[in-house]
Amino acid sequence: MAQKALPVLALLTILLSLFSAASSSSPEFHRPQYPKPISDLKDAVVKGLGLHADDFKISGFDLKDALVGHSVAYEFDVEIDSQAIPFKLLEDVNRWEYVDLPMFRMEEDENAVAEKRNGNPLPVLAPFQLAGPMEIWIQDAKDMRLSLPHDVDAGVLKKVILADGAVVTVKGARSVSLRHPIDLPLPLNRTENGFAAGLLSLAEQLRQTSRAEGAPLLSLRIVGPTNLESPTSTTPSSSNKLKLKRLGPGLVELSSPMMFNALSTDDLEEAATTVLTPKHFSTMWPLASLNGSHANLVGFEKLLASVLGAKANEKGSFKLLKADVSAQTYVKIGFGVEKKLKEGDGIVLEGFADWRTKPESVRMHFEVLAKVDGQKVIPERVVQLNPVTIEDTVAHNVLAGNITMSKVPTVYTPSNPFTL
Q1: Is the Cβ–Cβ distance between 358 and 85 less than 8 Å?
Q2: Residue 370 belongs to a domain
Q3: In which residue ranges of the chain is pLDDT below 70?
Q4: In which domain, by residue range, is 198 found?
Q5: Is 105 inside any structural domain?
Q6: What crossing angle do the helices spanning 295-308 and 197-211 adopt, rounded to 10°?
């Protein structure tokens, strides 16, 4: 009986080994440690740090510690003397939160699949106002709503022209960008008391140029499900209502009898020789809701003046190639790196005596700031949190001066009568 059971046991052993090999190679049993977006982010960070697979070990990238925040990014490309200079500015994130984004989930349930199909919840820009004359191209035309002030069924609108004097409030936009480069005149007037009249003067001159017959209109592109509404007023009046005129399929023109306050020719001539004050104008065209003393506008004018240098006060012009303002989602994740020390790494081990054993590896801690772009996470900045620290232990006899116990004086304590 025992001899007959041996072939059966051998067959069972073979089947079990085959099953274990198949299960270990199956993706169902060999799941990745990170979701694909985070795995791609880790690979990009490792490549950016110049690490090689044979001399480091990375830890962290724990999604439970990932912080999510929303901010506004400004990207500008300026051409000065045939040289393009890019600017990228980012507002500080007001609040970091622990948010469970669908793209961070390893196991997708029905809700996660639906969220991915519909896209991750995307941030939007705060409501702002645009003033004519200009044209607006709507990328998500099917999701655009028009209210004047009541909802108007104008079909699928791909392009909206704002006549001179028309002002609309834009809600729900994810980004606003310039469609065509524009030329801006110089000099850039410098002002006092933090009032950014230099850029305001350039914007007003550009607006006056757009008013000329046959002049090209300023063209902007808006991305995201957008609502275009008439500006609200504390005193309801029929003059605040916009008038709609159909010019073609997907094309309308909005006009208003209420003219937007503008500078006259005399004011422009005075602005070229005097310091502009809020009595001349206080908003920057075409952004009717942007105050001239806004900190971002003042800061950008100072940055532009520093880049222009002496040309800021000379007659001429420069070109604005790109202007993009977008609401972004950012992720902040910490991780650690244990790296083997090699010659030429640039790490100086100061304070080590010659007789001490040198460490073979160091531990470093980093924090990566990444931007969420659809189903991708793109690293923006990697910062080392702490300097290189080296763990060290010292024997007690070394701390005591490296003396032997035979040289320690004997101390006799007073006798205690209660001691046995």
Answers
A1: no
A2: no
A3: 1-34, 53-55, 106-121, 189-197, 233-240, 257-282, 344-352, 386-392, 397, 399-402, 405, 420
A4: 73-88+112-328
A5: no
A6: 90
- Which phi-psi region, left, alpha or beta, contains residue 103 (left: φ > 0; alpha: ψ -120 to 50)? alpha
User: In a 10 Å sphere around its CB, with 0-12 CB exposed, 13-18 middle and 19+ buried, how is residue 337 labelled?
Assistant: buried
User: Who contacts 62 (Cβ-Cβ below 8 Å, separation ≥6)?
Assistant: 333
Report the number of distinct structural domains present in the chain: 1
pLDDT of 194 reads 46
In a domain, 139, yes or no: yes
Torsion of Cα atoms, 374 then 377 then 381 then 387, to 10°: 160
> Partners of 328 in the beta sheet?
71
Instruction: Output the 3-class SS for 306-350.
Output: HHHHHHHHCCEEEEEEEEEEEEEEEEEEEEEEEEECCCCCCCCCC
SS (H, E, C) the chain: CHHHHHHHHHHHHHHHHHHHHHHHHCCCCCCCCCCHHHHHHHHHHHHHHCCCCCCEEEEECCHHHCEEEEEEEEEEEEEECCEEEEEEEECCCCCCECCCCHHHCCCCCHHHHHHHHHCCCCCCCCCEEEECCEEEEECCHHHCEEECCCEECCCCCCEEEECCCCEEEEECCCEEEECCCEEEEECCCCCCCCCCHHHHHHHHHHHHHHHCCCCCCEEEEEECCCEEECCCCCCCCHHHCCEEEEEECCEEEEECCCCCCCCCHHHHHHHCCCCCCCCCCCEECCEEEEECCCHHHHHHHHHHHHHHHHHHHCCEEEEEEEEEEEEEEEEEEEEEEEEECCCCCCCCCCCCCCCCCCCCEEEEEEEEEEEEECCEEEEEEEEECCCCECCCCCCHHHHCCCCCHHHCCCCCCCCCCCCC
The answer to whether 275 and 191 are in contact (CB under 8 A) is: yes
CA angle in degrees (0–180, nearest 5) for 138-214-83: 70
- Kindly state whether residue 238 falls inside one of the protein's structural domains: yes
